[in-house]
Fold this protein.
Amino acid sequence: MTYRAPITDILLSLNHGAGLAAAVKAGHYGDFDGDVTAAVLEEAGKFASDVLAPLNRVGDEHGIKLDAGKVTTAPGWPDAYQRWTAAGWNAVSGPEAFGGQGLPLAINAACTEIWSASNVAFGLCPLLTLSAIEALDAHGSEELKKIYLEKLVTGEWTGTMQLTEPNAGSDVGALRTRAEKQSDGTYRIKGTKIFITYGEHDMTDNIVHFVLARLPYAPAGTKGISLFLIPKFLVNADRSLGARNDIYASGVEHKLGMHASPTCTMTMGDQGGAIGYLIGEENQGMRCMFTMMNQARLGVGLEGVGVADRAYQQALAYAQERRQGKAVGKKGDGMDPIIVHPDVKRMLMQMRGMTAAARSICYATAVALDVSVRAKDAKVRADAAARGALLTPIAKAFSTDIGNEVAYLGVQVHGGMGFIEETGAAQHYRDARITAIYEGTNGIQSIDLVTRKLGANGGASVWTLLDELSATVKQVEASNDPAFGTTGAKLRDALGALERTSKWLLERLAAAPNDALAGATPYLRLFGVTLGGCLLAGEALAAKANGETEPQRYLALARFFAENIAVQATSLEKTVTDSAEAVNGADAVLLG
Amino acid sequence: MTYRAPITDILLSLNHGAGLAAAVKAGHYGDFDGDVTAAVLEEAGKFASDVLAPLNRVGDEHGIKLDAGKVTTAPGWPDAYQRWTAAGWNAVSGPEAFGGQGLPLAINAACTEIWSASNVAFGLCPLLTLSAIEALDAHGSEELKKIYLEKLVTGEWTGTMQLTEPNAGSDVGALRTRAEKQSDGTYRIKGTKIFITYGEHDMTDNIVHFVLARLPYAPAGTKGISLFLIPKFLVNADRSLGARNDIYASGVEHKLGMHASPTCTMTMGDQGGAIGYLIGEENQGMRCMFTMMNQARLGVGLEGVGVADRAYQQALAYAQERRQGKAVGKKGDGMDPIIVHPDVKRMLMQMRGMTAAARSICYATAVALDVSVRAKDAKVRADAAARGALLTPIAKAFSTDIGNEVAYLGVQVHGGMGFIEETGAAQHYRDARITAIYEGTNGIQSIDLVTRKLGANGGASVWTLLDELSATVKQVEASNDPAFGTTGAKLRDALGALERTSKWLLERLAAAPNDALAGATPYLRLFGVTLGGCLLAGEALAAKANGETEPQRYLALARFFAENIAVQATSLEKTVTDSAEAVNGADAVLLG
């Protein structure tokens, strides 16, 4: 169960599928010229293979232990975390003013895939710290930044995001944790949060919690929520650690997967209330949370890509080694490796194709988010922000759906061995499951796509993207390369389906919102397979144009995706446009 | 996590979707008039709810223990098994001459769904005994039957099926276990079998193992395999239990799911070899195994249906109870149950629709297998046998795919709670995973469908079935019932896709077998969604015609399935017919 980061694939995807090279060339990345990209990723791959991958199974088997409010992580984990921060991996895209390397989010996205592939439960910890950094950097006071930001950027301390409560999950506005202002300007927070990832652990001296709470007399719902920074240990004036704050892990969950990542119930107020510091303004907590949601959601999408790639690598190795049966027409004794069987080839190609498509969608999202803050031109920034906003729910939901589906196929390729825990394929399958749920369930992502992103500017973001994808398809058609097979025609059909469906949804959204909502999930899938297919085709064209050593593999993969997967688009169109009445008439069935 | 057998749905599916009522009316079931069906199923439902369902979680948590060759099952399991046999549930479809009730397989199929829904790891044990009964009844000597058959029919002893070895899984012909004939006519068997379900346990006094082994000088491959009956305890002349036979559980697997079902490594020969009795003739073991494969594969398909229904019931209950957010347009305070949200409705309808389709396909298979042995007319029997053979791989693979997909959605409906083991949704997800693998992986089923079943008689079985389905669709169209929406048109499209794809496969099968094999899995899916959609439409028509109290729910479900799921057929057609080259050209990608 080794892992090797697929650097060649990643670079092609990043530079060409996601458009990093073009954006750099256009000057949208400022000083960053892309020269270090390959070297950074090679090093990340080494660290992942050497340090993180060997701990993946250990973490799953040992899990974590909670005793008297203290969490012990699996053997080797605290040490690996020290090596991680010492090597500077936590700081890749952090702000330079606070100890970060200031590299683009796109580079960090590729790194996040690599961490997730090697050890998704480990990678989840810095992923949340990253969100905390973003919130603090954007909305925190200078004083708070001085004390906490560098610690978070370097990873000396980790961050948590605390939204969920027993009655406030997808509906975060229902939360009840209370905050009261003190005469010294700090706040006292009391309440209980659940499902808090890495809410308590033994890998760092301190943990910086970012907690949503409600002030007395705050308006109801999401308009009355404020964001607070609550350190596990208070920090003294001399920056040394002070008193233990009144925020404790009172329970940990027994989960299907991600065993090594502590999922805590956090209790505040047993000793009078946790001391917290306001981030941003009172009642503006949701705005602060939204700031960092794009990045967090993209991060979870990359977890999907990472787990998928790990599952693929393991299944591919097994299929080359395991011998059962013979290739069609083969005579003589002995069995062939199962990879000779077309049904196994199909599974592996599906795994690889879907992983590659999800990867490129995630990276494209990262490039858009980068350009939205790095480009000089305001119009370029605004367009990129719209693109990033549009792609984020797709990156999150499509990639994590794919993570689950690929891990499922990974078990299947292993046959009976796949069901045995020692094989390791089942761990990927279990670990992947939560990615479709947290940071907003994939249903929530689909609704976000349809209700907020698609209609944000009358669909302009979608039409612009479709035009770009259409140009790629034209190039495929113009290439006349027989290795593309019917890729051009298949993608053309898919684009047509996506365009018609988008228009239908925009129209229904105004006229009968429940019709649009009924089709949200299949629409996101339709978007994902179409976009993914076009990006892979674009990468194949780039591989040809750049004289890559093996453009055939990218041509063959793009072709497989178009002919095998992107062909779902026309059926998905029907599911969206023809079945809203059936969905919304469900009560006759469900409540009968 | 209660379970209530959906008797109304089951009866409609059995009698009308699967055609039991018509077959009984046509006289193909002999004396059986169907009067007892409802009463038997009601009782099965009660037993499942009262005795089996409460042990499902216990079994998952406790698992089993192996100590010095002895397996201890979870608390309450041996007692539940005694109650099970005492109530006669093991004997439902067993031969009357040996203590069985001689009820149709179709009735037992509905029972199997119910056992699997309430406790799939428990139901797996009698499922294997059933296969053992079938093999012994069809191929065993009268002497062996006298000693063993009644014990197996009543369930006083359980049976195992032992095919798999470390190097012989899907390729069973590669097995190495050796058998040598003794002067007394018995055989001595030495070797190791893996993945043996309920190979050892503490629920009965004796276990009857059915073991595939190879005689010295037997031909290579599947032509040199013989089947042996190997009792755990030998049976004395007076029918009392004698010496312990040389077959022991030397290990148990640590699995993703089905924790309560012991999956054993069985070792024979540490004490000179296990004493075995030949079933059928030497070197005819594969024929004997094939006899029972239809039923065993159907049984696993029903596990898929059962787990799916359990997952659905749990998700439905949660969606009615859990409150988050508000319905579109609703004003005022308070949250609505999440079932008001279209995306949740869609998930639940998908769960229910897919479960219902898989159920009807499995029951239709059971009816065909019944008629193939019960009908008076030889032509009717032969046609039914062909139908049963055709449907079996679809029943197995489609239903277990659906079991996994529905359990996945079951977790999703629960949101974050779904990932927590205590919720129970994750158990269904874990348990379901093996059903797509054992009794022939779903890939093997697809290959069986394409290479053996589709072409068995030049496609005649398929064309006959398509004609029947087409007649159903005509009735839908003729009904002009607006509640059907576009069901007729959608099913018509699906039937067209299935017919064209079947023809394409038959042609390729002869010309380029690897092209046909590349499309096997999507073809089985295409077959499943089309057949399932038509069966559900037929049930809705029957519900209307019979003046069922609530035909609307069946109309609405059939409509949802046609408009939401059966629409995949045309895309699946493209995947099969347009992507063989991409699949078979995979080496450029996979081995690059």
In short: Residues 444-585 of chain A form one domain. The two ends of chain A are 49 Å apart (CA to CA).
